[in-house]
Amino acid sequence: MKNKKRFHMSTLIIMALLIIGAVLVVYPLIWMIISSLKSYNEIYNKVWGLPSKPLFSNYVEAWIKGISGYFLNSLLVTLTTIFGVIFFASLCAYGLSRYYFKFSAAVLLLCMGGLMMNPQVCLIPIYSLLNGMYLRNTYWALILPYIAFRLPITVLLIRSYFLGIPKELEESARMDGCSDLKIYYKIFMPVANPIIATCAILTAYYAWNEFLFAVIFIDSEKYKTIPSGLMTFRDALSTNWGVMLSGMVIAAVPLVVMFIALQKQFIRGMTAGSVKG
Fold it and tell me: In 99-192, which ranges are continuous DSSP H helix?
């Protein structure tokens, strides 16, 4: 009976902590959505209240004011970054997990060292490099650094998953006459769907929300993404917070939808391969 009571008590404590955590995460999102439907005065005078009349025109104004262009730019940059990161990281992970050569340990250590590289430290060299290559104020000014900074963690995650794939699958494929590349894209990549989905979500979250590079490497309105573009919604004397919050809600929707659609794969990918070296 004592063990049963302890079990119930620990379960209740865990549930209470999870509920508190969920409230802390969900409430700001709910507040943002509610406030995006308020007028300027209601946001200040009725901070915690519901809007007297929902202003869906805030979303229309935000879209017309420029969020549509920023949205498309963010979508292009994020999708290209995801493709580049998954493509290069999966090839590198395949080589590191299946081939052992003289410097394989050094390459792995180099990937791990990339995790310690802080983007802020590399800001000036990257700026000079992009300027010298005439890539500043282009989509590539964001895509190339994003791919570079997301490769190390993605390589390690995919490699860890590939190590858990039975060698019998590879051997049987070789007996059937499959080349290394065929084994990579016909066996390893389909089997690794969970970790690919996990890496795609993590990369999308980074590329979609990245602010520092987006502000410094892009000056032209034509190429601005959502994080830097939302700054133009702020005026010198006053800011229409309803319109700005509407833009933030529009910016948050794709990532929320993506995570909901891939949450099962995300959980499987984060747990699978975690015990492999």
Answer: 104-114, 123-132, 140-162, 167-175, 180-183, 189-191
| Residue 266 neighbours by CB distance under 10 Å | 20
pLDDT band (50, 70, 90) for residue 4: low
238 pLDDT tier (thresholds 50, 70, 90): low
The rounded distance, in Å, linking the Cα atoms of 277 and 274 is 8
User: How much is the pLDDT for 97?
Assistant: 85
Residues 127-145 as b or e (16 or more Cβ within 10 Å = b): beebeeeebbbbbbbbbbb
Beta carbons within 8 Å of 14's beta carbon, 6+ residues apart: none
Beta bridge partners of 272: none
Which of 118, 95, 98 lies closest to 107, judged by CA?
Answer: 95
Report the distance separating Cα 37 and Cα 245, nearest Å: 9
Reported for 230-233, long-range contacts at CB under 8 A and 24+ positions apart, including other chains, are 230/67, 230/70, 232/66, 233/62, 233/65, 233/66
Confidence of residue 3 (pLDDT cuts 50, 70, 90): low
Tell how many helices (H) and how many strands (E) occur in the chain.
Answer: 14, 0
Band the pLDDT of 237: cuts 50, 70, 90: very low
What does DSSP assign to residue 63? I
> How confident is the model over 7-18, as pLDDT tens digits?
577 788 888 898
226: tokens are 């959502």
Closest to 198 measured CA to CA, from 274, 253, 130, 252:
274
- Residues present in the chain in total: 277
Residue 65: count of CB within 10 angstroms of its CB = 18
